[in-house]
Amino acid sequence: MPREINEPKYVISIAARILGCEVHTLRYYEKLGAVKPYRSGGNIRYYSEAEIERLRHIKVLMEDMGINMAGVEVILRLSSRMAEMQHKIVGLEAELRRYGKVDPAKRKSNQEVKDG
């Protein structure tokens, strides 16, 4: 991710306001390990844009879809793993193209998987 997205910039009260939740909710998510905000020398929590997006995703899963925190953790872990695997596939396809060995039919089926 670009540096700006991962740069800590929102204190907990602003992050809570952006997300429409309470400060204690963000502390709870941190305690569970769902997010890890940057801590300043004075132990102040700072949230990045990436963490805000992750928290929005968590909020949707829990509030709109009724999934408990254990389920959210599984979903986030699997989503992360899928993104890693997709990144690896793209790298392997690029390597195969360098050697001229990518079957156009395979490329189409992989694109259909990406487009979901």
Shape: elongated
CATH topology of the largest domain: Multidrug-efflux Transporter Regulator, Chain: A, Domain 2
In angstroms, what separates the terminal alpha carbons?
A: 22 Å
* Element pattern in H and E: HEHHEEHHH
Quickly give the structural class: mainly alpha
As residue ranges, the low-confidence spans are none
Note the main sheet. Answer: 3 strands, antiparallel
Number of DSSP helices?
A: 6
Helices and strands in order:
Elements: H1 3-6, E1 10-11, H2 12-19, H3 23-32, E2 38-39, E3 45-47, H4 49-64, H5 69-98, H6 104-115
Antiparallel strand pairs: 1-3, 2-3
Provide a descriptive summary of the structure in words.
This protein is mainly alpha-helical and 116 residues long. It has 2 domains: 1-67, Multidrug-efflux Transporter Regulator, Chain: A, Domain 2; 68-116, no CATH class. Helices cover 69% and strands 6% of the residues. It has 6 helices and 3 strands. The chain has a 3-stranded antiparallel sheet. The radius of gyration is 19 Å and the shape is elongated. The relative contact order is 0.10.
Descriptive tags:
3-stranded antiparallel β-sheet, elongated, 6% strand, Multidrug-efflux Transporter Regulator, Chain: A, Domain 2, mainly alpha, 2 domains, 116 residues
